[in-house]
Amino acid sequence: MNWQTLQKSLRDYPITPYLSDYPQSCRDFSWNAIRDHLQGLPDGNGLNIAHEAVDRHADSPRGGYLALRWLGRSGQVRDYTYRQLREFSNRFANVLRNLGVAKGDRVYAMTGRIPELYFTALGALKIGAVFCPLFSAFGPEPIRARLEIGEGKVLVTTARLFQRRKIAELRAALPALQHILIIDEDDTGAAIPGTQDFRALLEAASPEFVIPPTHPEDMALLHFTSGTTGRPKGAVHVHAAAAMHYYTGRAVLDIQAHDTFWCTADPGWVTGTTYGILAPWLCGAANLVDEDEFNAERWYRTLQDQQVSVWYTAPTAIRLLMKYGDELPRQFDLSRLRFLASVGEPLNPEAVVWGQNVLGRPFHDTWWQTETGGIMIANLPALDIKPGSMGRPLPGVEAAIVRRTRFGGIEPITQAGEEGELALRVGWPSLCRTYLNEDRRYRECFADGYYLSGDLARRDEDGYYWFVGRADDVIKSAGHLISPFEVESVLLEHPAVAEAGVIGKPDPVAMTLVKAFVSLKPGHEPSEELRRAILGLARQRLGPAVAPRELEFQANLPKTRSGKIMRRLLKARELGLPEGDLSTLEGNEG
Ligand code: WT7
Question: What is the predicted pLDDT for the residue at 327?
Fold first, then answer.
């Protein structure tokens, strides 16, 4: 089906978008001009994201403005002004300093969306430590792997998650982990041996803190992402990325100082940190945080009651809202919404148009990755929307469709409509600087001055980019990037499992679901009971966000002659697609 372009006009907006003339902005663009919007630390002491996001405003007439409004799961509301955020983050910076945490040390948070998470992120950045978020729906194994790779020194978590994820049992395997700070969210007052009470430390710490000199290239954020093979990769981001967080907050999401901005992503992932913590504050807006999970009615009520003006959410959530029908949103006054955007997985054209028809504004798809550290391609406020397309590269970003050549180079594909790998010319400020301790894997992502994204895409004759798929086996489920390797490794821990192969299976809402195929060791027979036991183990070890939803037994998994499970073939067979080149398949001696 052909979707009509949604024509945009500046008259659609009650206030002029920050980026209102795309061609002009492309012509005039300079990263230095963007950097000039940042203030820098006093006395020429460098650049610190937390200063730019909070302290700068706290010291200005905006200091008394709402910076964070937190909506608790059971109806609590807590408000923090920029000045209060400065105070709480200063306190936490002092807590860390008192614990002996130094520049470059890794401070992990696994808390769910509660106010302490925000103090933790800012406090860590202020002392020059590295903030590393962990998704609260991770099980013990993804937690352990990420803490180990990043040599986490401090873990901030809640009493509930500490118990549920069996953190005490992980400790012996994590020698670098010196401090666990517990947020006692139910006020039980019960002390957990070997941990310290977050709130008590915060209370006792001084509210005064002077940010030490920070170099723009100092490591600031560590975000784990998944590859097809091997362990999770820790993408290293630096303070200089603040320029991109600020720029994209303005130019793509159009966050202005009087806005109430709501990013529904969890800060356990890069979107929730970049746009759920930093970008709205860099732009001086009010940042709305809802602790609760998806709930259609609650979401519409929140959009209405909190007068959300800019909303950044994900395709899976939009598709869920659509399933609840058009009547529900019509019961709410959503007229404050000015700009809607989406990220993380393909946004189907129906969803874009549904936004326009039912919510009164279209959804704007945006594309980026953990590695890019900020939005790179987007349906920008002042550009016409082609529903189903990811949009156009931001001014300052140079994208290309390329083909890899045999000798490690790339070749541009200039023909409109032809499929190839999406590549970006190096030079924007938030590109991750390496994968922690895995510089070789990082360097493999580059050729001829371009960063290669691993995504397949097409560019049309108007310069819009269209997502085609991943070039590798990595799975995107409900917007979360999942490594089949990480899942297979846990399945293999079950004593009955001989081999495991994991694929993404299409799903109308989550886009893809994780599906596992396993073969059993001699002496084990497939049974419903065994299927449940293996799935149960996976869920316990990996957590609900990563564990497979489906499991199928197969006597033999298709392998290459070198013994590698052919996920591609498992997938083709599952979907009834052509099996492709089988020349390397084991047993195919032709
Ligand atoms: C991968 C990156 C959510 C951004 C940060 C998370 C897929 C991202 C889109 C989009 C189709 C998309 C790509 C990309 N993706 N945005 N608009 N349309 N696919 O980043 O977890 O590192 O995932 O998400 O495959 O490579 P991430």
Answer: 97
